[in-house]
Amino acid sequence: MRNQFNLKLLFWVCGVAFTAILGSCHAGELKKNFYKKSCPLAEEIVRSIIWKHVASNSALPPKLLRMHFHDCFVRGCDASILLDPTPNNKAEKDSPPNSSLEGFNVLEEVKTQLEMTCPGVVSCADILTLAARDAVSFQFQRSMWEVQTGRRDGKISSASEALANIPSPFFNFTTLKQVFANKGLTVQDLVVLSGAHTIGMSHCNLFSIRIFNFTGKGDVDPSLNPTYAAFLKRKCKSFLDSKTTVELDPQSSLSFDNHYFLNLKLQQGLFLSDASLLTDKSSSHIVDKMLVAGKFFTEFGQSMKRMGAIGVLTGSSGDIRKKCNLVNS
Predict the structure, then answer these.
(1) Which of 145, 165, 185 lies at the terminal end of a domain, its last residue?
(2) What is the rounded CA–CA span in Å between residue 125 and residue 11?
(3) Could you give the CA distance from residue 134 to residue 143 in angstroms, rounded to a whole number?
(4) Could you tell me the pLDDT band of residue 250, with boundaries at 50, 70 and 90?
(5) Mean pLDDT computed over 70-99
(6) CB neighbours of 192 closer than 8 A, spacing ≥ 6?
(7) What is the mean pLDDT of the chain?
(8) Is 131 helix (H, G, I), strand (E, B) or coil?
């Protein structure tokens, strides 16, 4: 009897540890082709609409990738970032880290089509997860990583929670490592997912301290390539310039590749958070591994799969929203 009790206790302890690693006790319930019977064309519909939009808007992939990332770090991957604010509630969309997000209309188009095809079946959380993958994959005309589905939608969206949970471009390595660990992600995931900065743009005010006033004396961050710093100074009008945008990956911001890591080695990481990856021996070693393009693509897919499992709602939890920007009435 005692041995039986100890065995049960062991399983409980292991279960808690496993939950901590995945960031969600429901993560294991996600699976490939979740909609195979309930909505066979679901993933094809998502891909078709996303690829149509990316074909005419090459800036869309980083926007959807960033939206997915910001969603998963707040309450898990539950599409809470898509909810509109109400008179009594400031939503995640209202939070400063999300103020420049775009692409919501594209996701609503996908949702509208899926509701016409399979009413009340496909979640907005799965739509966003698939859309992020498909937007990046358009360049290659094939799916770049596997997406497991079965997520359900959350009912709560809080601007304050977004501000508290989304990693900042001003974070140092220690803080970044802790933020990712809080979500069940490793240093490997931190470095690899930072590679998403190989596409997209940034506003000057998110890195201007590095080129205008690094230590409060009007100086430049010494860890920043001097030539690159001079280029950024010419682009940005002032320390508070929040309108001018700069490529995250110089000369390659529309191509999903491993140039981000090549830039890091040249001291051309744009954010303080980027540069911080070279301040730790373990993360710097991972950066070196990502200099091989094929290795980066493989590892990015694995890290995206782990991130996509953070805090997911499955089974009877959450909802399947009729519209992605509103909770069901």
Answers:
(1) 165
(2) 30
(3) 7
(4) confident
(5) 97
(6) 286, 290, 296, 299, 300, 302, 303
(7) 92
(8) helix
Alpha carbons 77 and 313: distance in angstroms, whole number: 8
Tokens of 22: 């995945």
CATH of residue 181: 1.10.420.10
> Would you say 133 and 50 are in contact if contact means Cβ atoms under 8 Å apart?
no
CA–CA separation, 182 vs 8, rounded Å?
Answer: 27
* Number of domains, the chain: 2
Residue 59 is part of a domain; what is its CATH number?
A: 1.10.520.10
Q: Which of 26, 68, 70, 259 is catalytic?
A: 70
**CB contact at 8 A, 228 and 239:** no
Q: Specify whether 203 is catalytic.
A: no
For tokens 């100086």, what's the residue?
Answer: 219
Crossing angle for the helix pair 104-117 and 124-137, nearest 10 degrees? 120
Q: So what's the pLDDT on residue 1?
A: 41
Length of the chain measured in residues: 329
Give the residue-averaged pLDDT of 5-27: 37
User: With a threshold of 0.85, does the pTM exceed it?
Assistant: yes
Q: Is 8 part of a structural domain of the chain? A: no
What integer pLDDT is reported at residue 184 of this predicted model? 97
Q: Is residue 23 part of a domain?
A: no
Q: Beta partners for 152?
A: 313
CA distance linking residue 303 with residue 300, whole number of Å:
5
Residue 50 belongs to domain spanning: 29-165
DSSP 8-state assignment for residue 84: P
**Residue closest to 79 by CA, chosen among 119, 108, 114, 117:** 108
Q: How confident is the model at residue 251 (pLDDT cuts 50, 70, 90)?
A: confident
What is the 8-class DSSP label of residue 267?
T
The CA–CA distances, whole Å, from 40 to 33, 45, 121, 132, 157 equal 8, 10, 11, 20, 30
Dihedral sign for Cα 63, 293, 210, 70, please.
positive
